[in-house]
Amino acid sequence: MPQLSRATTVRAVRLTLVLVLVLAGVAAAQSRLDTVMERGRLICGVNAVNPGFGFLDEATGNYSGFDTDYCRAVAAALFDDPTAVEFVPLTGGVRFSAIQTGEVDVVFRNTTHTLTRDSENAVDFLPVNFHDGQGVMVRADLGVTSVLELEGATVCTNQGSTTEANWTDFVRNQGWQGGQLLTFEDLARTFAAFHGGRCDAITSDKSQLVGVRASVDDADAYVILPESLSKEPLAGFTFQNDSTWHGALTWIVHALVQAEESGITSQNIDSFLDSDDVAIRRFLGTEGSLGAEFGLPTGFAARVIRHVGNYGEVYERHFGEGSPFPIPRAGTLNDLHSRGGLMFAPPFR
Questions:
Q1: What is the average per-residue pLDDT within 326-340?
Q2: Does the domain spanning 134-230 belong to CATH 3.40.190.10?
């Protein structure tokens, strides 16, 4: 094989580098971020029947919930307008295909991040924004105080959910005989079946059980059993292999947590804009241009905080003591890392 001259080798290397840069430029030009910015609004997939996380008020047409606020946070970061978002209600069965077909730009829909979902659904997950666990709820008059007393029971859950697979594993591990698992398209139908007496128990993420229990007039007629059957790290997700869009979304999610770590809220943000702390000035965009590498505008974090609040404010709004669906946060995995939880943001630098 003839040996290439040094000049020929250099030219080949340069040609390869040019090709790589061209391909990188094409990939960047095809980022979903460009599509969203040109459109002027975000299209966000959400739950419409899960009180606390994503719920559509049919009377007003308004969406509310923890996850819907993440959609608003993205719109605030990109457009300085939390209302520049179109919500698309998605069932558990179509949430991944909605990304794959391009129907939505991102999904925030109480979805558990698992290895199988990461590898089989052509999506990339965002940072975990809520740590949950699978629980079981029964009617109080059943007299059950532990999930271990449910051998032979008929249990209802959501189709295509991690809770369906987890319950099947739990029954196998216990060596139970008999019993039946009924699955339904979404939580509203699942709870309706349970409420109507078609099953002895309902299993889902504990946060969801808290929400549906609080939404009925006879809440005291139901008991959430103490055991947690699984880890359920909930996270948004978007297109696979779109590093620009994924990076932008990732740092918007982190911004809510960093704001709480820094003590910055929607009410006091103006007092931090000229902070003596250079890290805070960088974070809020009054110094430098953090986020520009992902196409984010300077000061994107300040926009998020001003319009939506920090992580603690979002959590308190939907799950705090004064909310319809109180879920204690102090000392749990959803607390800041400085208070014993798992919520933390990588350095903004």
A1: 95
A2: yes
